Amino acid sequence: GESVLTPLQVLFCVIPPGVGANLDLSFTMSGQAHTLEAAISYALPIVYNISQSVSPVDGNMNVTIIGRNFVPVEHNIISGGLFYSNMTLNNNIITSLFWINSTTASFIIPPG
User: Fold this and answer.
1) Could you give the CA distance from residue 23 to residue 78 in angstroms, rounded to a whole number?
2) How far apart are CA 92 and CA 22, in angstroms?
């Protein structure tokens, strides 16, 4: 992100899209590093609408989810081999997930 130092010695910065809660914010000013612990939390995702709530047993139906605060895949964090951001269906990670933008995602319902 960008930062601007005003004459009042206030640092303004733009936080990039991301995920997580109670994240540390680190910065360096005049050659001195400083970390504010648990300084930033991103808003939780909210779902407003699901395009299909009933699927045939064989699945293969496209579902679109509308909401806000979805994190597109390019901003995901990999932790333990899994994306920190994911969606599950019946406790199974949806592998066909397509993040469209911060308000829309879609996936294909698997058989089951």
Assistant:
1) 16
2) 27
Nearest to 20 by CA among 85, 108, 66, 67: 85
Give every CB contact of residue 24 below 8 A, 6+ residues apart in sequence.
35, 36, 37, 38, 39, 40
Assign 110 to helix, strand or coil. coil
Chain segment 44-101, per-residue pLDDT in tens: 889 999 997 777 777 788 899 999 988 765 555 545 544 556 777 788 778 788 888 8
Task: Please give the full DSSP string across 27-96, using - where no structure is assigned.
Answer: EEETTEEEEEEEEE-PPPPEEEEES-S---TT---EEEEEEE----GGG--EETTEESS--EETTEE-TT
Per-residue pLDDT reduced to its tens digit, 36-57: 898 888 888 899 999 977 777 7
pTM of the model: 0.63
Whole-number Å distance between alpha carbons of 74 and 76:
6
Residue 59's identity, in one-letter code, is G
